[in-house]
Amino acid sequence: MHVSLIELREPPVIVEVESNDNCETGFFGRFKEISPARPVQQVKLYDRTPAGEWYWVTGWSDNAQTPTCQAYAQLVEDSGAGLTRLVYGGIYGLRFKPIDIEEAWSLDSLHQWGESYLSLASERDLRYAD
Hints:
The chain is mainly β. The protein has strands spanning 13-17, 27-33, 38-45, 53-60, 68-69, 71-78, 82-88, 94-98, 113-115, 118-120, 126-128.
């Protein structure tokens, strides 16, 4: 009698972003899920200052009337970077704006910008919605 052992695996996390007005560069990535996705509202980025600054983050969709959608953060394994906190949103990626500027989400704002996804080393750089 022959018995086969089937290894049960979590489905991969697939992030696919089309090139669009929010972020010029499209992206397709496949990651190994380590923990479930959680809704995220803010991220801390270190682009402008070594101490970091907090930004609102939203997903960006292809719905012209209501383009914002939920952004998520999830611990994943990236073949090139090891464990990372993957932040992803809609089919058109993510959109960021400073937390000290109160304005609607808009592609026309000089204070906002888009990215296809974000990879963060530390969970301290995330503020979850839940």
